[in-house]
UniProtKB/TrEMBL annotation:
It comes from Frankia alni (strain DSM 45986 / CECT 9034 / ACN14a). Keywords: ATP-binding, Hydrolase, Nucleotide-binding, Transport. PROSITE patterns: ABC_TRANSPORTER_2 (PS50893). Its EC number is 3.6.3.-. SMART domains: AAA. Residues 6-269 form the ABC transporter domain. GO terms for molecular function: ATP binding; ATP hydrolysis activity. It holds the Pfam family BCA_ABC_TP_C. GO terms for cellular component: plasma membrane. This is Branched-chain amino acid ABC transporter, ATP-binding protein. SUPFAM superfamilies: P-loop containing nucleoside triphosphate hydrolases (SSF52540).
């Protein structure tokens, strides 16, 4: 099954007289990492919320594959392959790591089963376990048992040792990894990552970079917003730079880093001035 591209088309979001997102077009293809940068108040988080469905645009649309998802709720988007992780990991703290991952895997699976039955997006969320199991027995469930996906992800992320650990007892770095693992269990087409490096030390951030590259190499599209501009520039395939709600530059990291507008905006700011000196991307 080919994965879907995520597109923002002419997105506008206004708060009173302020236009937080101003006619933004963005394309996040599968297998690529797309970064979103900009100074404080540029509109990054607002655009992110429009993509996830937490906020609704005043104009424009969000399209996943050939489906207009602009009016779909975040949970429905997630079942259709647009999966987000949160700045504060949103795991079930009293469940084990493995059970947290099972929740991620089950959500996506229900959408498959509902799709086979021709149900609407809303109806798909209500597909029962018995219907799922029935489809499995008939050989119509395309992705193998959910437990198998969970074991694969635990193994590939080196989390097998903590599979039975209660999530709430893990330190921040491990929690972020479990949050990421849970998102992967949902078999995303596109992963939206909000500040994935916040709270991580430099070693953990380096591991995260590798993990993002590996995930994208497996065909998943990734959109990343992070204040760690070194991380963004070092890991992405393409960057969108926002200022005042608008995209002022986009393209490969080197092009965006050398863009005169981007330079003039960021050279005054310590973090990006450092990124500007940090050599070639990847
Ligand atoms: N709920 C809201 N109500 C009113 N104004 C808002 C709201 N959310 C964001 N804004 C305004 O929209 C603009 C864009 O904000 P946004 O949070 O998207 O920027 P950002 O690029 O994420 O900034 P930061 O780097 O500080 O996180 C800002 O001027 C902000 O004050
Ligand atoms: Mg923000």
């Amino acid at each position: 099954m080919s994965r879907h591209v995520l597109q923002a088309v002419g997105l506008v979001r206004r708060y009173g007289g302020l236009t937080a997102v101003d006619h933004v077009d963005l394309v996040a293809p599968p297998g690529m990492i797309t970064g979103l940068i900009g100074p404080n108040g540029a509109g990054k988080s607002t655009l992110f919320s429009l993509l996830t469905g937490v906020e609704q645009p005043d104009e424009g649309k969000v399209v996943l594959g050939s489906t207009d998802i602009t009016r779909m709720r975040p949970d429905i988007r997630s079942r259709r392959g647009l999966v987000q992780t949160f700045q504060v990991p949103s795991l079930f703290p009293t469940l084990t790591v493995a059970d947290n991952l099972l929740v991620g895997a089950e959500n996506r699976r229900r959408d498959y089963a509902g799709g086979l039955l021709g149900l609407s997006a809303q109806g798909r969320g209500r597909v029962s376990h018995s219907i799922e199991r029935g489809l499995e027995r008939l050989g119509l469930a395309p992705k193998g048992p959910v437990t198998q996906i969970v074991e694969e992800v635990l193994d590939s992320l080196g989390l097998s040792d903590v599979r039975d650990t209660i999530a709430g007892t893990l330190p921040t770095g491990a929690l972020r990894l479990v949050e990421f693992a849970r998102a992967l269990c949902a078999r995303p087409d596109i992963l939206l990552l909000d500040e994935p490096a916040s709270g991580l030390d430099s070693e953990e951030t380096a591991k995260l970079s590798q993990l993002l590259r590996r995930t994208a190499a497996g065909g998943v599209g990734i959109v990343i917003v992070d204040h760690d501009v070194d991380l963004v520039f070092s890991v992405v395939d393409q960057v969108y730079a926002m200022v005042g709600g608008r995209v002022v530059a986009s393209g490969d990291p080197q092009t965006v880093r050398n863009d005169p507008t981007v330079r003039s905006v960021y050279l005054a700011q310590a973090p990006l001035a450092a990124a500007g000196q940090s050599g070639e991307a990847r």
